[in-house]
Design brief:
The structure holds 2 protein chains of 2 kinds.
Chain A (H helix, E strand, L loop, with lengths): L3 E6 L9 H10 L7 E6 L4 H7 L4 E8 L12 E5 L17 H10 L7 E8 L12 H22 L1
Parallel strand pairs in A: 1-2, 1-3, 3-5
Antiparallel strand pairs in A: 4-5
Helix pairs in contact in A: 1-4
Chain B lengths: L1 E7 L8 E6 L5 E7 L6 H5 L7 H4 L8 H16 L5 H33 L10 H8 L1 H22 L8 E2 L2 E2 L5 H30 L2 H8 L8 E6 L11 E5 L5 E5 L4 H4 E4 L8 E4 L16 E2 L2 H7 L6 H14 L10 H20 L19 E8 L2 E9 L5 E7 L1 H4 L1 H15 L8 H12 L18 E7 L5 E7 L2
Parallel strand pairs in B: 6-11
Antiparallel strand pairs in B: 1-2, 1-15, 2-3, 4-5, 6-7, 7-8, 9-10, 12-13, 13-14, 15-16
Helix pairs in contact in B: 4-5, 4-6, 4-7, 4-12, 5-6, 6-7, 7-12, 10-12, 11-12, 14-15
Classes of the chains: A alpha/beta, B alpha+beta.
Chain lengths: 158, 489
């Protein structure tokens, strides 16, 4: 028995940071396979463990802000897999434990943790100004991510 | 002059930054602590119905949304000039203490635990929650996860939603709880008290029975004689939800005590050109720079200061721990920054006991949970003790209740000057001319920072993965990187 969680993450009042939440909301309004659940979360850390446990597959959508010297364009979509998050285990600062740590912690505690984790990260223009609007490149990217996720889910169902 | 940066990057950009400048002799010249700026909050709020601020302000930050919801709700009570229905007040305080239990627990096991349970100089690859789990055992880790889940259940039972409660309305809360729900709340809070006792025992075994740690806690590098701020009830006991703000001095005596609404008469803000974040200080004492002592208006607002500013805890087990804490550490006030971790666990026990008291109060299931406002005052201040310090929300509205002005002082901001001082003092104590600046040293400087549990307000989540950390040593004259250490990058 497989089950998929589509998890939109972000902050709805920090401009482009709301993109993950918007993608989840739009996907929720469409017809999806029965074994797919769509959720939104505005926090990460240990909360992620509580959200993803029990699912076999998780697709996360979030905003990304790369360093200014990176070659990434606003609206660019970067696809990460669980293996990209391995290795980093330092908690570093307040309340942040990352996805890799969450998956490993869940494993050690004997929870059913997803084996298949994909993150669609969308390069943002602005995640530091309060606002409820997405920038044009990020809004356009949201539509492309929705198509990518639908394709993932349909390939799965076929 | 060389520059050492401790650069924790949460989302690759928009991160907090610690910069240590080292002179040619290799000694610490200065330390700067900077946080990223979030823009346009006031503009975002102005023109909206004031009731919306109880749902907007929790979204500033994913770390303590419940604290913002509660401060906002209290400010909105004041804007409408409405008395809170007694059962509504009990439910708010129950929710709030359940939140404290989960927040303080998370801090201890995830953030502070690795330094103490694994050791401050241990291999960074093992100095994390996974290392902690390896050491304390799966049973404890499972109990911690379970406690969080049960606290979340209780918070959503009252709050309507997990994470971002929506229950707070002017005059009370949106819904009552049933007798069955109350029974579950009693069950959950009973477990909270047991877990808090267990956690204090763990702290005792791991930290207090280790003389090296006790020496580290008491060492001068981690000490500051600042003023202390904390909310107290009518008996001068710690309270997180309501009371007066009490300031105590270096000898433990009361300097002043005031109602939250008068905060502007007591707190002023100092500005530095290199940081957008202001440095609040006590108006009656004045700003004398980044120094401690009775002539400097620098204060702390944290678990450490709350215990210092109060005459005791209002619940029996927490009171015992309060007494043991001060007798072990040499009486009130305790100025050791790292003792904040112990103070936090004393508060954890209080929060659990208080939640249990509230859950067993017969009035908690009274269906009259709200008084409907009939007028409008147009201005209000709401204050609570957030886990990271006293949280002030101040709103002004027009006669229709539309927001015209918003001012917040958040927990971490209160401690801005003290955090900078603590970092500098720790750096001075640990970095000496000619010594190698290793990861362990920088981690111990960061410990001075982590004790405050600082919150950058934007750290709602982290991508990709764990927080990368970059440490660079730069020559001031050439700006070239002399050496650098990178983790998780």
């Amino acid at each position: 028995m497989t089950s998929t969680l589509v998890l939109g993450m972000g902050n709805p009042i920090l401009s482009d940071d709301g993109v993950g939440l918007l993608v989840a909301e739009k996907l929720r309004g469409t017809s999806l396979p029965n074994d797919v659940e769509v959720l939104q979360s505005e926090v990460a850390g240990l909360r992620l463990l509580e959200l993803v446990r029990g699912f076999t597959r998780v697709i996360i959508i979030d905003a990304l802000k790369s360093p200014a010297d990176s070659a990434r364009e606003p609206g660019e979509i970067v696809r990460y897999e669980a293996s990209d998050f391995k290795g980093g285990q330092r908690y570093g600062s307040a309340h942040s434990i990352g996805l890799g740590t969450v998956l490993e912690l869940g494993d050690r505690l004997g929870y059913e943790m997803p084996r298949d984790v994909v993150v669609y990260a969308i390069e943002a223009v602005d995640v530091e100004t309060f606002g409820e609007q997405l920038s044009a490149p990020v809004a356009a990217a949201a539509e492309r991510v929705i198509a990518l996720i639908r394709a993932d889910l349909e390939a799965d169902a076929a | 002059m060389k520059k050492v940066s401790i650069d924790p990057i949460t989302r690759l950009e928009g991160h907090g930054k610690i910069e240590i400048f080292v002179n040619d002799a290799g000694e610490v010249a200065n330390v700067y602590f900077q946080v990223p700026e979030l823009r346009g909050f006031e503009r975002f709020c102005v023109g909206r119905p004031v009731e919306e601020l109880a749902r907007i302000t929790p979204r500033i930050c994913g770390v303590c949304p419940e604290a913002h919801h509660m401060a906002a709700t209290k400010a909105i009570d004041a804007v409408f000039g409405v008395e809170v229905a007694p059962a509504g007040r009990l439910l708010r305080e129950l929710l709030y203490n359940a939140f404290y239990v989960t927040d303080h627990t998370t801090h201890f096991y995830i953030l502070a635990g690795p330094d103490f349970i694994m050791g401050p100089q241990s291999d960074p690859a093992a100095r994390n929650i996974l290392g902690v789990v390896g050491k304390v055992g799966l049973e404890t880790a499972g109990a911690m996860i379970n406690l969080r889940a049960e606290a979340a259940e209780l918070i959503s039972m009252i709050g309507g939603k997990q994470i971002h409660p929506v229950c707070g309305l002017p005059g009370g809360v949106s819904q009552a709880i049933t007798a069955e729900q109350r029974d579950r709340a009693v069950e959950i809070t009973t477990g909270m008290v047991e877990f808090a006792k267990f956690t204090l025992q763990l702290f005792d075994d791991v930290v207090l029975k280790n003389n090296d740690y006790v020496d580290l806690i008491k060492s001068d590098a981690f000490n500051h004689a600042t003023y202390n701020m904390g909310m107290v009830d009518a008996d001068n006991k710690v309270n997180f939800y309501d009371g007066q703000i009490r300031i105590t001095g270096q000898d433990g005596s009361e300097l002043e005590k005031f109602d939250g609404k008068d905060y502007l008469d007591h707190i002023a803000e100092h500005v530095e050109p290199y940081s957008y974040l202001v440095y609040p200080y006590l108006k009656s004492v004045g700003w004398k720079g980044f120094v401690d002592g009775k002539d400097s208006g620098v204060y702390r607002a944290s678990p450490l200061s709350r215990l210092n500013a109060a005459d005791g805890m209002a619940t029996p087990l927490a009171q015992q721990e309060y007494e043991r804490y001060f007798s072990t550490l040499g009486g009130r006030p305790v100025n050791a920054t790292l003792a904040t971790h112990w103070a936090r666990l004393v508060e954890l026990l209080y929060a659990a006991e208080r939640a249990h008291e509230l859950a067993t109060d017969p009035e908690i299931i009274n269906p009259d949970v709200r008084n409907i406002p009939t007028g409008i005052v147009g201005e209000g201040v709401g204050v609570v003790e957030a886990p990271r310090g006293t949280l002030y929300h101040h709103y002004k509205t027009d006669d229709k209740g539309m927001v015209t002005n918003v001012n917040l002082i958040v927990g971490t901001t209160n401690n801005n000057a003290a955090i900078s001082m603590s970092l500098k003092k720790a750096a001075e104590g640990l970095i000496k001319g000619g010594t190698e600046i290793g990861e362990g040293t920088l981690n111990m400087i960061e410990m001075a920072f982590r004790a405050y549990d600082p919150c950058f307000g934007c750290a709602t989540h982290t991508l990709p993965g764990d927080m990368p950390l970059e440490v660079t040593v730069k020559s001031e004259s050439t700006r070239e990187i002399v050496t650098s250490v990178k983790r998780n990058m």
